[in-house]
Each structure stands twice: as structure tokens, then as C-alpha cells.
Amino acid sequence: MKKIVLLLALLGLLQADEETARVVYDLTTSNMAKFEKNILKGIAVNKAHYEGNLKELEVAVVIHGGAYRFFVKDIQKSMFNTNLKLVEAYPELKKRIASMADTYEVEFLMCKASMSKNHLEAKDVVKFVKIIPNSTIGLIDKQNEGYAYIPVKD
Amino acid sequence: MADTYEVEFLMCKASMSKNHLEAKDVVKFVKIIPNSTIGLIDKQNEGYAYIPVKD
User: How many folded domains does chain B comprise?
Assistant: First the structure.
């Protein structure tokens, strides 16, 4: 009897696994419009698509290349403060990005290797971002866990 | 390709209007999907490898 219960529980887990789609975005773009379209809007649209099909979509985003700028605590004190268009849009953008982590449970992973080049330390980055040794390791781990690879670049 | 090799062609619906295309304008073996990201997620989640073919 116990074995049957265990078997049913396992089948249930397998079933749940089949009902979950997974994606890791390889985010390197510095382009604000592209970031908005593919990450802020895209993830919301795609989450809704899977929910409509009674599935879940688990999302991870690996941040490197030109994308560090979208995840700083204080844009004015960052090396991106000369980009006036970004500085102007940032307060609103920052709220929307935070809601991706809160509402949609998006996992944000930042490549540590190029943080110094972007004049960033861990304390300068928004708190929902997890710092990983490098982007390749993050992309390997996520794909090995079954996440689909989607690049978002310039 | 579709007939002999059973290649499955999936077209991203999101940018069809930008290309002045409706479903009726596209060859009939093409299946229209909501957007390319969803197609790439589904195929990779089924175990298909990702290979970009771009400019």
C-alpha cells in the first residue's frame, strides 16, 4: 500500500514537471527598448500564454555584457549616469524590474566576472539579483536543468 | 523539406503584420505560433537543441 502511494506521488511529480515550461534568457543588450520589449513585456506575455494552457513558466535571466545598467541601485551614482535617456526612465523601469522578481518570480543572475569593469560591487546592485561566478556557468547550470536558451542581445 | 523530410515550420505571429502578412499569405505547411520565444521554449523543453541561423 505504501509503495502504491509512493508511486502515485512520484507520478504526480512527473506530471507537474511536464506542466512546467522553463526558459533562461541570455541578457546582454544595452538597448532599453529591446530590454523593455523582450524582458519586461515579453516575460509577462509568455507567462500568460502558459497559464492559459494550464502550465507554468519558470524564468531565469543571466545578466552580463551591456545589461548591468538595468540592475543598479542608484543610477545617478553609477557609470551609466551620463546616459540621460536611461537616467530619466530609470525610476519607473526599476519598479517594473523589481515587480518581475516579486510578481513573476523571475530569478535574476548576474555575472560577477565583468562587474568591476562596470564599476559595480555587490552592494551597488538591486537586492533581488543573485551574483554568480560567470555567465557561462549560469547558462550551463540552467540549460542542464532543462531551461530553454533564449538570447536577448543588441 | 516539409514533405520529404517532415521538417516542422513554425512562424512567429507577432511580427507577421510588420511583414504585411496574414495567415492566408503564407505557404500552407507553415504553422503559425503566438511568438518565436514560445516556439523556442517549447522545442527546447522537449529536448530539441537550439541552433541560430542569422545574418
Answer: 1
**How far apart are the C-alpha atoms of A148 and A92, rounded to whole Å?**
29
C-beta of residue A121 within 8 angstroms of C-beta of residue A114 = no
B44 and A CB contact within 8 Å: yes
Q: For residues B26-54, b (16+ Cβ closer than 10 Å) or e, as one string?
A: eeeeeeebebebbbbbbebbeeeeeeeee
Chain B contacts of A146, Cβ < 8 Å? 45
CB A30 within 8 A of CB A153: no
Per-residue pLDDT of chain A in tens (154 residues, 90 and over written 9): 667 666 666 666 665 667 899 999 999 999 999 999 999 999 999 999 999 999 999 999 999 999 999 999 999 999 999 999 999 999 999 999 999 999 999 999 999 999 999 999 999 999 999 999 999 999 999 999 999 999 999 9
Domains along chain A with CATH numbers = 19-152 (3.40.1260.10)
* Predicted interface score ipTM higher than 0.95: no
A150 contacts in chain B (CB < 8 Å): 37, 40-41
pTM: 0.90
